[in-house]
Amino acid sequence: MTEAWAGGSFGARGACLLAPNPGLMTLDGTNTWVLREPGATRSVVVDPGPVQDGHLDRLVETTGDVALVLLTHHHLDHSEVARDLAQRKGCAVRALDPAYCSGADPLTDDEVLEVDGLQLRVVATPGHTADSISLLLPAERALLSGDMVLGRGTTVVAHPDGRLGAYLASVERMRSLVLAGEVDTIWPAHGPVLDDAAGVLEDYLAHRRQRLDQVRAALVGLGVDRPDPEDEHQSRQVVEVVYADVDESLWGAAEWSVRAQLAYLAEGSPAG
Fold first, then answer.
1. 248: pLDDT strictly greater than 90
2. CATH 3.60.15.10 for domain 8-198
3. Is the pLDDT score of 272 beyond 60?
4. How many Å from the N-terminal Cα to the C-terminal Cα in the chain?
């Protein structure tokens, strides 16, 4: 039985406040990360989450002085209360997508952010969405992965905003940070902290390669000559073959990923 995740404190600088929005896509809920340098008074809030059951009020009450709100990507379960929280705390919101920024410029790849001694490095990791980023917290050797890597299971690459080629490249970039000794643990936006970053990323890459092989085999079995991500009948047929052993309540999300895989194969991309 899977142990429930409830957030908590991690390292000397991280605290996870779990939003009350559990579900098939959100696992136990959205992890709102509050980061603060030891001894500092101001914090950084990452993915303040949804408007649901008083989560905004809880953040206002528990986060103290907030210097900056950051978004790993635009999905509402991460971004919905960002502007409200920032207004109530008197700070800015920053994201890769300018549409989700308030009072400050968009983030840029490899940008280093500093708040009262706390350092974060922006790592552009598109794939789950076009605007997905991760945040490297060097002092903890931790990578805040947003939805690119989850604490349980694997993430959805939702066509057309999500692109599998970009996703695979981003996971390889994350892996390069591990191999360089910069990352040991992953702090995801859903589910528990992952202490074995290297093993998890290897598993993610292996899983995607396996899924691509299964999709290729399904297309051959269905007599399909040309993968077409816009052909809803084709993508549904592939889901019924590849995800036959998965609960049908998850087939809708699976179809998003299948369409991303079909787009990847249609472009003539290799299997990772």
1. no
2. yes
3. no
4. 32
Q: Which residue has the tokens 């990923």?
A: 257
pTM value? 0.94
In the predicted model, is pLDDT for residue 212 greater than 90?
A: yes
101 to each of 48, 82, 91, 124, how far by Cα in Å?
A: 14, 9, 11, 16
- Supply the pLDDT for residue 252: 86
Taking CA atoms, 71 is separated from 51, 96, 207, 209, in Å, by 15, 8, 27, 29
CA dihedral 160, 164, 165, 170 (to 10 degrees): 110
- Per the omega criterion (within 30 degrees of 0), is the bond before 160 cis? yes
Burial class from Cβ neighbours inside 10 Å (0-12, 13-18, 19+) for residue 15 reads middle
Catalytic residues: 77
Residue 1 pLDDT > 60: no
Is 86 buried (19+), middle (13-18) or exposed (0-12) by CB count in 10 A?
Answer: buried
Question: What mean pLDDT is predicted for residues 48-69?
Answer: 94
Residue 245, pLDDT score: 87
